[in-house]
Design goal:
12 helices, alpha/beta, 4-stranded mixed beta sheet, 32% strand
Length: 371
């Protein structure tokens, strides 16, 4: 509770440095600072949304750490305005941590465009605010009770930062998603759901032309993270079987190079990925990890498993989604602009028929984490 109060007070103190009121003349103590907001399609009116907001409580002696409020409105601006008539305070999104978009909203192209436009125009919402897509209702996520971390907005914010550092997520902020949608027409937004009575952020929603078309899991997302961002893979564990014996391999790092070419309208993208691994779990009584043949066969097995996941993802991109999730277009625009200009109007077709190849070179550094 003390950490929560210190955080809120520190943020509010920064506002006090410029006086006790903000530009609209409203006293700071007369505001409700929203930490998270969920947006669902209204079940009552097709022209409205259901907004569910989380507001932290920092009053001295209060046993409550937060409360939530729900209201149907046409848009975020109306939600803030109409809030005036239901409380003695005015809602503020200047400290917003996360926006949770319900699946029913993100399936509607017009709704997504309108929402993104409003967030982009907002003078208060930080463009670094985190975005997640709820695999059902956003209100369920906002209202979810977390025993050891009562503020859902703060919890999701810290959760996403951890996942991105580990390579399990490629994008998570409004700024990143908006730039991708405006630049290449597609984006990935982390997906969240309630699983086994806990919040789970596993994989991402695939957004094409401002509309949800599918979800990918964390393995596919981590592969994209490697191929587009480089560095350590989010796929930190690879489970394989050798001679019917289960073995777990820990991925320590990845090193990547690529060759992108466009000749006479034919696109090719070849990736070379070195995967550095350690053995983390296996039955020592049945296998001798010091055997060079065992290490070689294990590396081949890991290579095959990772390659299978990658091939399936590439097939989805080219045939099911027909969208460039590898950011090849960015590379062409930067380094082969003249060639790209010739095919830009039919790029989706060119990408669909492109030769895309990912070659993994798995290396087992040693026979275990401590050997």
């Amino acid at each position: 509770m003390m950490k929560l109060k210190a955080f809120i007070l520190a943020m509010i103190f920064a506002l006090f440095l410029t006086g006790c009121t903000v530009r609209d003349g409203v006293e700071i103590n007369d505001r409700e600072y929203l930490f998270a907001v969920g947006i669902d399609a209204s079940e009552k009116n097709s022209d409205e949304y259901t907004f569910t907001a989380e507001v932290p409580v920092v009053s001295t002696g209060s046993e409550d750490k937060r409360y939530t409020m729900t209201q149907d409105s046409e848009n975020l601006t109306s939600f803030y305005y109409e809030n005036i008539f239901t409380t003695d305070k005015i809602a503020s999104d200047s400290l917003m941590q996360v926006v949770v978009i319900g699946e029913d909203v993100v399936k509607n192209q017009d709704s997504v465009k309108t929402l993104f436009d409003e967030i982009e125009r907002s003078p208060q919402i930080n463009r670094k605010v985190k975005l997640v897509v709820a695999k059902n209702k956003a209100s369920d996520i906002i209202n979810f009770e977390i025993d050891d971390n009562p503020l859902v907005g703060r919890y999701i914010n810290e959760f996403l930062i951890k996942l991105k550092k580990l390579g399990f997520q490629t994008t998570y902020s409004f700024d990143e998603v908006a730039l991708n949608l405006q630049g290449v027409g597609n984006a990935l937004i982390p997906s969240i759901e309630i699983r086994n009575e806990r919040l789970a952020i596993d994989g991402a929603a695939v957004i094409k032309n401002y509309e949800l078309i599918d979800y990918i899991n964390h393995v596919e997302n981590s592969i994209l993270s490697v191929l587009t961002k480089g560095g350590i893979s989010g796929m930190t564990r690879v489970n394989v079987s050798l001679d019917d014996i289960p073995i777990t391999v820990n991925v320590e790092n990845t090193v990547i190079s690529q060759k992108i070419d466009l000749k006479e309208g034919k696109l090719s993208a070849i990736y070379y990925v070195t995967v550095l691994c350690n053995i983390s779990a296996y039955d020592m009584t049945k296998l001798d990890s010091s055997d060079s043949d065992f290490i070689k066969r294990l590396a081949n097995e890991v290579n095959e498993v990772i390659s299978e996941h990658t091939d399936k993802l590439i097939y989805k991109m080219q045939n099911k989604y027909q969208m460039d999730m590898l950011e090849v277009k960015d590379i062409l625009m930067k380094y082969k602009k003249a060639d790209y200009e010739k095919i830009k109007d039919r790029y989706d077709e060119v990408f669909k028929n492109a030769d895309i190849e990912v070659n993994y070179n798995v290396k087992i550094n040693n026979s275990g984490m401590v050997r």
